[in-house]
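User: Batch of two.

Assistant: Item 1 of 2:
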Amino acid sequence: MQNKTRVFKITTILMLFTAILPVANAQQSDSMNLEEIIEATISHSQKLKIAQYQSEQADLDRKRALRSYLPKISAEAGYTILDDDIKFDDDFNSLLMGNQWLLIKEQTGLPFNQQPTPELMAMLSQNGVEIKEIPPIQEKEYFKANVTAQMILFSGGKIPYLAKAAKHKRNAIELMSEQERTKLTLEVVKYYDQFAVTYKSEEVLDDTENMINNQKEFVEKAFKNGLLTKLDLHKLELAQQKVDVKRVELETAKKLLTAKLSQMTGMEAARFYNVKPELNLIFINENTGDISTRNDIKSIEEAIKASDYKVKSEYSEFMPKVVAFGKKELVKDNLTMFDPEWAVGLKLKWNVFDGFSSTAKVKQAKIDKLILQEKKDEAIELLSLKLTKEALDLDKNFKLIELADKKVEVATKTFELSEKQYKHGLVSQNDHLNTLLALEKAKLEKIKAIYNQRVAALNYLDTKGSLNFNSIIN
């Protein structure tokens, strides 16, 4: 019966293990490394998406400026009703009618002083000779349709300047996008390192718990033999409870970090539960990077160039503009004697005085450029000060790590010595537990010191303009 029960238990365990193993493997394969998290964060960033749209807008501005050189062709049609026909005045009409009568007399051989009597006009009409009514210049109702074309030949330099300004504006936006990517990378790495802190801290707690369990076996034996009191057992239980409290705090911290990475990447929080990063020091090559190579500084420089071309484009308003044009009428029947069937030509336009509007725009563009220059100078000054502070902070953290190593070394030796003395009854249990807690604290402080060194190194690299994925993992 016992053998059957044992077989049943073993079979049940194997079935559970078989069911759990694929899930564990799936979770392990579905976990993400640091590079994947950074890429997912960058892809999910709304700021970068907005910047991409702004970059496309700037590119459209450049193309729109250059396309101003292309001819503009338009077709127009319209039906018009006037209040009356447009005619010559009565005197001019009489003159035209008289000229017709003179031509008829000349053609028919009538005497010069012959008057157009009704009988004479009726006879001439029978022979196909008539005095025609003078048509109006423009009839009351008419329909017209035409095609016109216009092309800029010379814009005073405005078009190329605007195109160059838009190009540098796009460069500025793209450089700021690169700076935003660096910022997101820095933020992700800090959260990733905090994951490492929690896991390393859990390892320390595991060591502490193992030591407590080992000590608990010794205390329980001594208690049974009457060598220790129940108070000694309670002290061990209290030490275990402190470990349990720290585990709850670490688990809460991991859940918060998981939620933050989920928000940054737009992925499910479960993707980050199996993330177990390492926590190593970052060593820096002092010869790499410079403040002037930071993307945000280069972005301001591109914005200054764009502003400079904007100034030039405003100055071009003082220059003449040359335009070629052409027009072709599609409906010839309704054209008057004053309407050409087609026409081509050149047109010159020069704003001699525009109420100082162009002058004001030039001044505004110059002020915008000066503001950008001051922003650049201020940014370089602040970054230089920040770089000095972070270099000192980095040096301080390296020294603190050395001290943390020594502290762990001393705490380990103290605990080992205390353990030997405790087993021989030379130190109290309370003093021995204090050495254990001191060792735990020293290990946790070392983990924190390594994290602080990484943060200081990352901030230094970011300020210096040399933060990239290779500098993080090397």
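Item 2 of 2:
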Amino acid sequence: MEAFEYRLFQEQDLPSLLRLWEEAGWGVLTEKQWRAWFVDTPQGPALIVVAVNAAGEVVAQEVFMPSRIRIGDKVVRALRVSAPILRENLRGESLRRRDHPVIGLYLAAAEAAAELGFSVVYSLPEYGWLPVFRILERFGVPRFAKATYGCATLRLDDVRSSTAKGPLVARPISEFGAEYDQLWACASESFPIGCGVVRDSGWLSFRNGGRIALEVRHERDGSLVGYTATKKQSGLLADVLARHPEDLTGVIAATHSWMANCDEVTRSLTHLKVMKTTALEAAINKLGFDEEDFKFAFTCNTFDPSLTMEIAPERWYLMPGD
């Protein structure tokens, strides 16, 4: 295989990188979109690693999106790994080779991330990508913690949510303001959230702009109980949070009821889908979700060995949109 240089993205790489994005089948991406998605994030620019050939062309790239993770009573800097993008002629090569771009990209990113002060790296990859993380361990990368989750689905015409929502009402979110910072602070303690992405107002605004984002409030006094963010194309609940664990059932039920009564939603979606985490188990059971033949995957690792036990998957409050 041709030898490549692996390094952090530089501004002069952008035209070549945008061509790679389009040629690899990811669609046309403008410079404006690029900066909105990967530069102007709440936690600063993404860590982007590229593979460059002898002609100076970008032949592969991988994005590591910055976030903040709450671990117990402290907050650390983290990165979410996105799927790598490779030129077509590189995709059939064996991943077991150290000179494969997927290996080179990750090793370069891990070195840079540790130097820049990031503590945790995590991913919600396609289930079929889990073996890649095991292969990385053969090249000196510390072992990744891994977990899989099932999928549950509820038809939008199922009427059970109407009674389960109780006095809660969902409506579109106009702005993720200070109330959402208070919601996160309350949920962090009441669940409690041993490990999880910090869901402050800035993060929520950045992540949920293209989703069906709903606030759920008490009908009586208008107080904010929780929120949801659902993917428009698939009906997957990308994120949900409530002030207290016992409120999750009502928050999801109110979301389901609102979606079921929205013509714009029901023209394109027939089901609400959720990732079957421990946090959502009670709501899934009470609302009568059905099993779907699909598996979600999660992996995480740390550049700080003292955090290894603290980031175990069972400690995470985890959603697909994290």
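The radius of gyration is 21 Å.
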